[in-house]
Specification:
The relative contact order is 0.16. The strands form 2 sheets. The chain has a 4-stranded antiparallel β-sheet, with helices on one face. β1 and β2 form a beta hairpin. It contains 3 helices and 6 strands. 33% of the residues lie in helices and 29% in strands. It is of the alpha+beta class.
Length: 146
């Protein structure tokens, strides 16, 4: 940029003063942006799915869809359930009867949930067909080992 002969050196100093930022304000702005990025990273990490630990709720939802017909669980359909990624035990309890499937030899025992061997447990109340034309309330439970 060329300097005209009409500008004085005081005009240049005034222009330089107008473009300056206070060091304290700049430091506060950098800290605020850094803190915001840190909080975003923590929130994003907390929102990601932990693929190492199996989740019982999605497994329970999938199994319920597979064994339910017309809103009623048919325990005999448990035999057709496949595709477990982890050692899993699925139990249907109704009217004093119990139906169970286990995926593999390392499947967790339903009664041994409190000993720390099971990573995830989910259960919900369902309507179970115990005989033709006879439906009762029961429980569908999924236990997944670590």
């Amino acid at each position: 940029m060329s300097r005209s002969s009409g500008e004085s050196s005081d005009d240049r100093d005034a222009a330089a003063d107008r473009a300056a930022v206070e060091p304290l304000a700049a430091l506060v702005a950098v800290l605020a942006v850094g803190a915001a990025l840190g909080l975003y990273t923590v929130a994003l990490d907390g929102a990601t799915v932990d693929r190492e630990r199996p989740a019982a709720e999605p497994t329970l939802d999938r199994i319920e869809r597979e064994i339910t017909v017309g809103g009623v669980v048919e325990p005999d359909r448990l035999r057709d359930v496949e595709g477990f990624r982890s050692a899993t035990t699925v139990t249907v309890i109704a009217d004093g009867a119990t139906w169970r499937i286990e995926s593999g030899t390392s499947a967790p025992e339903p009664a041994a949930v409190g000993d720390g061997s099971a990573a995830a447990v989910a259960e919900r109340a369902v309507t179970v067909r115990v005989a033709p034309g006879r439906n009762v309330r029961g429980t569908l439970r999924v236990v997944i080992r670590r």
